[in-house]
Amino acid sequence: MPDERGLDASGLRVEAAHARLLVLRMLRAGGSGHLGGVLSCIDIVTALYFRALRVDPTHPEAPTRDRFLLSAGHKAMAQYAVLARRGFFPESWLDSYGGLGSRLAGHPDMHKLPGVEANTGALGHGLSIAAGMALGARLATTGARVFTILGDGELPEGANWEGASIAAHHRLGNLVAFVDVNDLQISGPTREVMGMEPIDDKFRSFGWNVTTIDGNDMAQILDVFDGLNPAATVPTAVVARTVKAKGISTLENTVASHYWKPSEAELDAAEEELRATLDAARRESLAVVR
């Protein structure tokens, strides 16, 4: 299986900027979507596919591949955009987002799209599925790792903590769970709906190795990957503090961004801002190469 591409932080910022623009492309096609959480986690998803995961877009079901599960399945546009950029399917498929019979539904469907490992979005189940996959990979001695992204708004679901217990009990060192902590959910601030802080201490109390990062900072995300121990005997939780709707200044840190139904003018303004971000990221990347 080919190695991951191994882009550096500046290259990953370019890819993440491309992915954000592809999210807007899907919104133009479908008319609405869960933009806020998509943009808060998209830097992590980008770094996973372009740096951490051992995957081959031409052989998406290779038995030795690493697995990624988006537990917060309503953030599917983040995964769709990055899968397209990584070459799992043509970018033209994104234009069908939200349409009748589309491969790209509001939540990911493993039966319709290459690169999707499980149907997710019934919140609270992704961690348990990931733990099962990690245990299976260990028993099969494939060397595969399993990564998942949870949302802070889904943590009150009890199945998360059953999964956390199972992963610690079976000493699944090949499991890494990112928690996208953007502090907002559809009903308002998570601390008001159902506060779950301190998240790091909760995972630590279950027997996990825990680290906290800025989840929109590529350098910090890469530090997590570089610090993973192949011989680890406990699972790793990464509490990633992020900004809801990161990249679109008028929507950042707003409840309204959770599910966005933009006008054409709003889409145009957002696209202009994100294109400027892409141009800046490209200039930075070129400067690093020189």
Automatic annotation (TrEMBL):
GO terms for molecular function: magnesium ion binding. Gene3D superfamilies: 3.40.50.970. Residues 18-271 form the Transketolase N-terminal domain. InterPro entries: THDP-binding, Transketolase_N. This is Transketolase. It comes from Micromonospora radicis.
